[in-house]
Amino acid sequence: MKFGQVSNPKDIDFTLPPTAPDTLSLLKEQQHKDNFAAYVGCAKWNKSDLKGFYPKGTKDELPYYSKQFNSIELNATFYNTPSKSQVETWKEKTTPDFKFCPKIPQSISHYSRLLNTDEKVKEFTDSIALFEEKLGMTFLQMHDNYKPKDIERLREFLIKFPKGIPLAVEVRNEEWFSNPATATSYYKLLEEFDMTNVLVDTAGRRDLLHMRLTTTSAFIRYVGANDPSDYPRLAEWVTVIKQWREAGLQNLYFFIHQNIEVESPLLAAYFIQKLNKELNLNLHIPTTNN
Fold first, then answer.
1. How far apart are CA 94 and CA 74, in angstroms?
2. What tens digit of pLDDT does each residue of 10-65 get?
3. Which of 140, 111, 110, 146 is nearest to 125 (CA)?
4. Is the pLDDT reported for residue 289 higher than 70?
5. Helix 180-192 vs helix 151-160: angle between axes, to the nearest 10 degrees?
6. Residue 233 burial by CB count (10 A; 0-12/13-18/19+): exposed, middle or buried?
7. Phi-psi category of 276—alpha, beta or left, where left has phi over 0 and alpha has psi -120 to 50?
8. Contact 6, 225 (CB under 8 A)
9. Which residue stretches of 19-130 are H helix?
């Protein structure tokens, strides 16, 4: 993942910003604060990217991956809408508690830029609906050059998006967050439609760490820098997530990327160990062969 990559991560202040007050207000309104589920995974299961993670002789990576992690940020769907048979195959290969978080295809987000996409959205959602109980949070990632001037286009898209499919939204253009009034309009739009706001922790774009949740689910895309700083960064996230859970967070989706993906399972194992200890969870800790 090259977005937000910097040449020298040691020049970056990776300290997490304070949680937005509106986030805490939203979480504290929850009535069932004891309900909490955490899903942690990588962005892909490809053997070539996660070299050293799979035991020698592993021919089908997905079944093994699903025994090590309980979720996947399914970036494969960004390139093409999967067939219904492909979704059913993926579902059958995974453990009972596994969750898929499919990314909306670029034909909708990048090429069509949300215009005239009804049929494409229907094709996509009809397919991923076959994940059934294994469907986690679907997410929409807009192109870097998609700006707030088109917020009404986003509104129309959210109005039409199927209500039974959870959706998280990631906007990347700096104009969404450089003006507080613009950012507030965006957050309120997501709240209006009960859509989750994606947080991105990457070196070169600290403005995407707005720490503003719009639902009781946190969808966090963490991008390591292949640097020793990756570990204390993850430890700080555990502290924040613990605070959010105590305030009323219901679901955590946390996906670990790296500019060089080979280290992602190592970081994930470290993060899960910390999360289990601090939040009294019992998530499986991935076996790493490195």
1. 13
2. 888 899 999 999 999 999 987 666 789 999 999 889 877 787 889 988 989 999 99
3. 140
4. no
5. 10
6. buried
7. alpha
8. yes
9. 21-28, 61-68, 84-92, 106, 118-128
